Amino acid sequence: MGEEKPRVTISVIKADIGSLAGHHKVHPDTILAASRVLAEAKKRGVIKSFYVTHIGDDLVLIMTHYKGVDSQEVHEVAWNAFQEATKVSKELGLYAAGQDLLSDAFSGNVRGLGPGVAEMEFVERPSEPVVVFMADKTEPGAFNMPLYRIFADPFNTAGLVIDPRMHDGFIFEVLDVMEGQVVELKTPEESYDLLALIGTPSRYIIKRVYRKNDREIGAVVSSERLSLIAGRYVGKDDPVMIVRGQSGFPAVGEILEAFSFPHLVAGWMRGSHHGPLMPVGLRDSRVTRFDGPPRVAALGFQVKNGELIGPADLFDDVAFDETRRMAQLITDYMRRHGPFMPHRLGPEEMEYTTLPEVLKKLRSRFTSYEMGYKPVVKTGGSSEEVD
Ligand code: F6R
Ligand code: MG
Ligand code: MG
């Protein structure tokens, strides 16, 4: 009998604690402030290793440790790191300092307090490649389409057909963030049911993906929706995601391939517009045009004895130039719609923005208009006649 191997946890926790020149990019001094807190936690043995980075205006903490997911100690470290970074942010007068820290007090877990969290725990394989994705100016459902492609679409992932370790398929855990419910669906046999849900990415979010034959975790997404937590618009939820690669999981190249199509996601300016998700290297990890376009960066690591080795800046490559060019063309095309849908989000999503305030002001100016028939307006399942 061999010794049982310890389970390592990788925690990616992010927050917008204020940024330079509006919502453009993270200031290096806030990265330093957060790094100091994590370095101290490493010294104390709370975490094993860490890497502090950024996507657009979001500060991202990548940590490994042996405390499991939802560890109070690790979450407290992250919370303190964001607090320290916020202090610097306030001193420098950065924009929207402390924006995502919705509470003043830490209560054991950062979930629901504002920061986005993606964590997974596993027994390290002899070689353990992981990819950390970080997106800005969009929402967690933005990863629905690429995750489906990575783990369920053989036109993206050759391994689903060729590799016997993957051939049985995967299990998708899907959250209904409006109802607070969860459901598991298996692919390939329940692919159409899965697509029926995740095609509505504002409501149904892929939270985790497991390999079917041994229930090994393959991917996890941060699923916090700030607007639902805060009940008002406080910035989009700019998600992060961890995906394991190779040796029975999709190859890193198959994982990245899913981002070669800049699909339309919700977010962008004022969290109120659809735009293409553009894959970028860290040097382009900032938002400019119309506070965008929405961007995603991918950092590749090897996890060895609990240490993060890397990163490799995976989208910093000419192979994604054409995707970026297509994203620019789509940006032009979408922008020309100005304030019109489908560039601007539909009314359901706009509920959580500042638009309802504007509409409320106009309400009293409406007068009745005889249409010659009684229109029936459907509201949330029940029908009511309009006088
Ligand atoms: C979107 C985002 C920005 C702001 C926009 C207006 O997530 O953060 O697009 O919504 O720059 O910001 P305020 O209202 O702070 O001037
Ligand atoms: Mg912001
Ligand atoms: Mg952001």
Unique bound compounds:
fructose -6-phosphate, magnesium ion
Please give the largest β-sheet: 9 strands, mixed
Going by helix content, strand content and strand pairing, the class is: alpha+beta
Helical percentage: 10-25%
Range of strand content: 25-35%
> Helical region count?
10
Helix and strand string, N-terminal first?
A: EHEEHEEHHEEHEEHEHEEEEEHHHEE
N-C termini distance: 77 Å
Q: What's the overall average pLDDT, rounded? A: 93
Using the alpha-carbon principal axes, give the shape: globular
Give a written overview of the molecule.
This protein is of the alpha+beta class and 387 residues long. 25% of the residues lie in helices and 28% in strands. It has ten helices and 17 strands. The chain has helices at 28-43, 72-91, 144-152, 159-162, 191-198, 226-230, 252-257, 321-335, 347-350, 355-363; strands at 7-15, 49-55, 58-65, 116-123, 129-136, 170-176, 181-187, 204-211, 217-221, 240-244, 264-267, 273-276, 278-279, 295-304, 307-313, 376-379, 382-385. Strands 5, 6, 7, 8, 9, 10, 13, 14 and 15 form a nine-stranded mixed β-sheet that branches. Helix 1 runs antiparallel to helix 2. The chain is globular. The protein starts with 6 loop residues before the first strand and ends with a strand. The relative contact order is 0.14. The mean pLDDT is 93. It binds fructose -6-phosphate (F6R) and magnesium ion (2 copies). The site of one magnesium ion has 7 residues, from loops.
